[in-house]
Design brief:
- A 7-stranded mixed β-sheet has the order 17-18-16-15-21-22-23, with helices on both faces. Strands 3-2-1-5-14-13 form a 6-stranded mixed β-sheet, with helices on both faces. Strands 4-7 form a two-stranded antiparallel sheet.
- Helix 9 (240-247) packs across helix 14, helix 10 packs antiparallel against helix 12 (367-393) and helix 11 packs across helix 12 (367-393).
- By secondary structure, it is of the alpha+beta class.
- The chain has 16 helices and 23 strands.
- Helices cover 35% and strands 25% of the residues.
- Bound molecules: adenosine-5'-diphosphate (ADP).
- The site of adenosine-5'-diphosphate has 15 residues, from helix 10 and helix 11.
- Residues 261-262, 305-306, 308-309, 321-322, 324-325, 404-406, 408-409 line the site of adenosine-5'-diphosphate.
Length: 492
């Protein structure tokens, strides 16, 4: 038996997944690592701990399954995106901890850039909005704040990387400094039009180009990892959300996946041409494959599964997230609306002054109605995003592929199909992220072809819309009305 291994380096844990020839996950190992919060709004990871946990789970996976290095066709890497590490290329020593995507310390640098009127440039050339999420201002912050870093960078002694780059560097013993197009496109330093590091952005942030990794297609022989003296090729690299899009086999323009986790991440394949959003969706590189670049729209719902956590841990009206399905099925009517705008609203509303609210309460409203309405809010918010994607891409969506923890909720998935008026498809293997990285690696090694991926795909369940267009329009109008009333809440 031959295997492909996916290393899934996430925000809270490192995982290794063993895929057999049929693309089935045969085993998974996982290890959490420390979340470091030096100050409010700051989030760091220890790069050595990232590597150690990743290495440990891989070793465990091989040992437990008695896999010899010769049995591994190749390794694919998928990773938390945007998180930034700067290290000395001679010693391999990071100059400080990794600054995680969630970290807000560079908000003032972003404000400076906005004041200079750079927003249009950034959108046109990197596809992104100016935000502290992305790697660019994190590198700038490190060079400005770590004593001696700027000089060393100018001397060509320091290099930067997102987490994929760090892992490749570690795995190749410091021989390879590289990333793939999907990860590069999340740095806000990569020009998604000419596919080079953007000189204007690098200059503006005073980042020497010598710090930047070389950028390759996502399916590419990045280097070899020696296991017991046997070289195992690293053949696929993709940022986590793009990996899920690939793992869900969204190969054609107009195909969309939605991941229902703490937040929702929706990505739509928009094909080989760059499309621009007028509603604040991000334009990003989905992957580079066969000498071609595929682009995607990306939008996110800030509060999705987090709203279910709020029911459980805040209001304490649920013991477990899974129980929400049972209560929602028992609640009659659709007259209660929960708008979980706990920290404002994202695309297409973009209102940081909005706050959460509950509408439509009557004397008989009980906890089951609140639970139902909260679950429905995940579906309504996802519809908001999907409608925006349809409008901005001009592509009509026929079905939505789903994954993530809350996609297991059958009530939610049925309501999602109902409110979209489109089919919702849940795959049997919900490890889409790891699967995407494994597929990329497997294709590079000639182990799988793209059509195999479609053929091997097994659907767990399809949800067809069951309500009438009139009913759908009425419900969605109710949601829009509720959202409207939460907007600008914090303003006088
Ligand atoms: P993340 O990767 O963001 O941690 P997961 O994909 O593991 O998220 O999903 C966990 C989230 O989904 C939690 O916020 C949880 O409240 C929610 N969740 C998990 N299972 C269900 C379910 N059956 N119904 C509704 N929400 C769920």
């Amino acid at each position: 038996m031959k295997y492909i291994i996916a290393l899934d380096q996430g925000t809270t844990s490192s995982r290794a997944v063993l895929f057999d020839e049929n693309g089935k996950p045969a085993d998974i190992t996982q290890k959490e690592f420390s979340q470091i919060f030096p100050r409010p709004g700051w989030v760091e990871h220890d790069p050595e701990e990232i590597w150690n946990t990743q290495h440990t789970v891989l070793t465990e996976l091989l040992g437990r399954n008695r896999i010899r290095p010769e049995d591994i066709v190749s390794i694919g890497i998928t990773n938390q995106r945007e998180t930034t590490i700067v290290w000395d290329k001679h010693t391999g020593q990071p100059v400080m901890n990794a600054i995680v995507w969630q970290d807000k310390r560079t908000a003032p640098i972003c404000e400076e850039m906005k004041k200079e009127g750079l927003e249009k440039y950034v959108r046109d050339n990197t596809g992104l909005v100016i935000d502290s999420y992305f790697s660019a201002t994190k590198v700038a912050w490190i060079l400005r704040n770590i004593p001696g870093a700027k000089e060393k960078a100018e001397n060509g002694d320091l290099i930067m990387g997102t987490v994929d780059t760090w892992l490749i560097w570690k795995m190749t013993g410091g021989k390879v400094h590289a990333t793939d197009y999907s990860n590069a496109s999340r740095t806000m330093l990569f020009n998604i039009r000419n596919l080079e590091w953007d000189h204007h952005m690098l200059c503006r942030l005073e980042i020497p180009e010598t710090m930047m990794p070389s950028v390759h297609p996502s399916s590419w022989h990045f280097g070899d990892y020696l296991i017991d003296g046997v070289p195992v090729p690293i053949s696929g690299v993709l940022g986590d959300q793009q990996a899920a899009l690939f793992g869900q086999a969204c190969f054609n323009p107009g195909e969309v996946k939605n991941t229902y986790g703490t937040g929702c991440f929706m990505l739509m394949n928009t094909g080989e041409e760059i499309r621009e959003s007028s509603s604040g969706l991000l334009t990003t590189i989905a992957w580079g494959l066969d000498k071609k670049i595929y682009y995607a729209f990306e939008g996110s719902v800030f509060i999705a599964g987090a709203a279910i956590q709020w029911l459980r841990d805040g209001l304490r009206i649920l013991d477990a997230a899974e129980d929400s399905e049972y209560f929602a099925e028992k609640a009659s009517g659709n007259d209660v609306f929960v708008v979980p705008a706990f920290s404002g609203l994202g695309a297409p509303y973009w209102d940081m002054y909005a706050r959460g609210a509950i509408f439509g309460l009557t004397r008989d409203t009980g906890k089951k109605h609140l639970i139902k309405a909260t679950l429905q809010s995940l579906a309504y918010q996802s519809k908001d995003l999907l409608e925006t994607m349809e409008k901005d891409s001009g592509l009509k969506i026929k079905k939505l592929k789903v994954d993530g923890g809350a996609a297991m909720n059958n009530f939610l998935m049925q309501f999602q199909a109902d409110i979209l008026g489109a089919r919702v498809e849940r795959p049997a293997i919900t490890e889409s992220t790891a699967l995407g990285a494994a597929y990329m690696a497997g294709m590079q090694s000639g182990f799988w072809k793209q059509e195999d991926i479609l053929n091997k795909r097994i659907t767990d369940r399809v949800f067809e819309p069951l309500i009438s267009p009139e009913e759908r329009n009425k419900l969605y109008a109710g949601w829009k009305k509720a959202v409207n009333r939460t907007m600008g809440w914090l303003k006088d």
